[in-house]
Prior knowledge:
alpha/beta, 4 helices, binds inosinic acid
Amino acid sequence: MTLHNDIERVLYSEKEILAGIDRVAAELTRTYQGRDFTVVSILKGSCVFASDLIRRIPIPLELAFLAASSYGEGTTSGELEINFFPSGNEIEGRNLLLVDDILDTGRTLHGIKGELMKRGAREVRSCVFLDKPARRTVPLTADFRCFEVENLFVVGYGLDYAGRYRNLPYVGALKSEIFAPSHRAGASG
Length: 189
Ligand code: IMP
Ligand code: MG
């Protein structure tokens, strides 16, 4: 048995993902040409996306990390907790590009953006791998996004369910039997 057995259908293949990232990387390269900026990868979910994305941006940039979790039940996002911040000099006066796996309700990016502005960032923009606009509860639009997804819980390419499936190279929908009560767990990130 492998993780592949738990997938109902593949939404984005590896090849489609990289084509989408190429497109966004070109937009980012045009936008930040001649300007200093720092990519802030939001852990854990964005680590796979961020590492593919930055390798397609051929202009100077710096990399920083921030860890956030929303402790919710199973597939719903709950209270935002920021567990780890970049250092003060990585934030103050900097142009930051927040990179996240998925923009869902919007609470994570909205909360992080507010916190970084409060800590003295010069500018905070956002770039998400997936955008699920149907579920938005906070008025927030990503400045850059690779794909819009339907209102469906997805895993793979960094996205988890109960901490697993982040290592799948594609984005897929889980089989319904996986969402049984015995599979439920807390943190996502
Ligand atoms: P938001 O705060 O509701 O926008 O949620 C953002 C976080 O919720 C993401 O960084 C993910 O960790 C998690 N999330 C939301 N939708 C999904 C999904 O479909 N699959 C896996 N994680 C998700
Ligand atoms: Mg997450």
